[in-house]
Automatic annotation (TrEMBL):
Residues 1-18 form the signal peptide. Keywords: Signal. It comes from Drosophila gunungcola (fruit fly). InterPro entries: GD_N. Residues 24-126 form the Serine protease gd N-terminal domain. Pfam families: GD_N (PF16030). This is Serine protease gd N-terminal domain-containing protein.
Length: 167
């Protein structure tokens, strides 16, 4: 059985909570990260640059019966900049900001772009909830140049300083 990558976050009481990042088979198009050093996010990247129109269809699943951990869903870095990036032949990106995540981040169970399945993962056998996200974006002019370089997605995770205990 594969285990998810672990990120340790220290709370004010000095105790450590482990935040589990679920395994997924979509590292080319999706990554978890931390924005502004405190907000957990998921970043989605289109399969190629130069797409005149992008239609995202995403499913995220989380354990338990709590409210949705999805706080906001936005084009990245902003809708205006995303359109400009698409017009300039760059890859489109979408960001999901999470809230109330305590033990495990939501798991990506489906990612489709323009009706093409890029990846899918099984849901947990434990009680869980799923949210479906549909977003679209369109270039505002004809794309004449496509940028061949793709920015590598490396998650930005919180830096953890060791805590020293003196006996």
């Amino acid at each position: 059985m594969k285990c998810g990558f672990q990120v340790f976050v220290f709370v004010s009481l000095g105790a450590a909570l482990a935040i589990s990042l679920p395994e997924h088979n979509c590292t080319e198009f999706f990554t978890y990260g931390v924005e502004d050093g405190k907000t957990f996010v998921g970043i989605f990247t289109a399969p190629k640059a130069g797409l005149q129109s992008i239609s995202w269809h995403i499913k995220l699943t989380w354990l338990g019966m709590e409210d949705s951990p999805v706080h906001t869903i936005d084009h990245y870095p902003s809708e205006e900049q995303a359109v400009q990036n698409i017009n300039n032949g760059l890859w489109a990106q979408l960001v999901v900001r999470f809230r109330n995540t305590s033990l495990e981040m939501p798991k990506l169970t489906l990612l489709e772009v323009n009706n093409m399945t890029l990846c899918s993962n099984p849901k947990s056998p434990l009680p869980s909830n799923t949210i479906t996200i549909n977003r679209g974006i369109v270039a505002t002019r004809e794309i004449t140049t496509i940028k061949a370089e793709r920015i590598k997605m490396h998650p930005v995770l919180p830096k953890i300083k060791p805590t020293f205990f003196i006996n």
